[in-house]
Design a protein that fits this description.
alpha/beta; Rossmann fold; 2 domains; about 25% helix; ADH-like_C; alcohol dehydrogenase (NAD+) activity; zinc ion binding
């Protein structure tokens, strides 16, 4: 079968012919229908030797949807023919967090040579994916694969961030989403679907603001020197109750902390190289609370799939055949992708 393999750090992944896996024990073989491509993949591809604990080579792809085709003799929980989406973060499988379906916060994460499918273990940018256990699979029914695959990271990560701050987003509150890309546009939808909050969106691109509008944002604005003032005015003059920063750059963190009201909460999802200096007293609003959400739980992925089935979540996608992965990666690097990139086996 064909697979997109990372064979050397800092070099482009190579389309490669490899043997189709055979499931043993509790393993499950999935025929891939769609695999998402995101900036986390670029981070892995561009990694310096030793920067990540992963052993080369391995197949990329952590956002995956497909159909179960074969099971190992000890596998249970799914049947051949089931259509599924992959729960991508794979932990140790034995700690309390993993047992509860929270592999994203595995207690032994720092000791593992992998972080999940396509992250040190073979992923789904291939014709088939071998999954170590059915506990990493969530049923999708008739949901289209190009919608389901991005839900496993873009949808789940956004939903997990929103869930963590939902307690602060009741009637009359304001939430700000900074960065309306592959994750941000789904955060806007999740906020619209699961909270009563007013949703304000910020980006540097007009087309991203148009995407925010289609996703249900109440207001969108370009990032400018006066953006904090504009957002405060839209919040009734008091500031935002919660800010979701899907960029994490110095400028966006400055905006995020500048627009929060006292007691406001900031979720930093993006990894854009920014940092915060915490001091008391200091420039941060009094009562400021910070979270650094990472991916999400298996139970939350099931909730995300349910939202997609209800029509509350819709992923804006650009599709490419797996054979055109190089073109898709180039477009992603150049910032030319609207929403989420999805690769489909030829």
């Amino acid at each position: 079968m064909r697979a997109l393999r990372l064979t050397a750090w800092g070099e482009a992944p190579a389309p490669t012919d490899v043997e189709r896996p055979v499931p043993h024990g509790a393993e499950v073989l999935v025929r891939v229908e769609a695999a998402g491509l995101c900036r986390s993949d670029l981070h892995v591809i561009d990694g310096a030797p030793g920067a990540l604990p992963y052993r080369l080579p391995f197949t990329l792809g952590h956002e995956v949807a497909g159909q179960v085709t074969a099971l190992g003799p000890a596998a249970d929980g799914v049947r051949a023919g089931d259509r599924v989406v992959l729960y991508g973060p794979w932990g140790c499988g034995s700690c309390a967090r993993c047992a509860a379906g929270s592999d994203n916060y595995c207690d032994r994460r720092n000791t593992l040579a992998w972080h999940g499918a396509g992250l040190g273990r073979d992923g789904g940018m291939a014709e088939y994916l071998l999954v170590p256990s059915a506990r990493h699979l969530v049923p999708i029914g008739d949901l289209p694969a190009d919608q389901a695959a991005p839900l496993s990271d873009a949808g789940l990560t956004s939903y997990h961030a929103v869930t963590g701050l939902r307690h602060a987003l009741g009637e009359g509150t304001t939430a700000v989403v900074i960065g309306v890309g592959g994750l941000g546009h789904l955060a806007v939808q999740a906020l619209h679907a699961t909270t009563a909050s007013r949703v304000l969106a910020v980006d540097v691109r007009e087309d991203a603001l148009a995407l925010a509008d289609r996703s249900g944002a109440d207001f969108g604005t370009l990032m400018r020197p006066d953006t904090a003032r504009v957002l405060r005015a839209r919040s009734g003059g008091v500031g935002a109750d919660a800010v979701f920063d899907f960029v994490g750059a110095p400028q966006t963190l400055e905006l995020a902390t500048g627009v929060l009201r006292p007691g406001g909460e900031l979720a930093v999802v993006g990894s854009g190289g920014g940092s915060l200096t915490v001091s008391k007293p200091g420039v941060l609003p009094p009562g400021f609370r910070l979270s650094l959400p990472f991916w999400g739980t298996r139970q939350e992925l099931a909730a995300v799939v349910a939202l997609a089935h209800s029509g509350a979540l819709h992923v804006e996608t650009e599709r490419f055949p797996l054979s055109a992965a190089a073109e898709a990666i180039d477009r992603l690097r150049r910032g030319q992708v609207r929403g989420r990139t999805v690769l489909v086996p030829d």
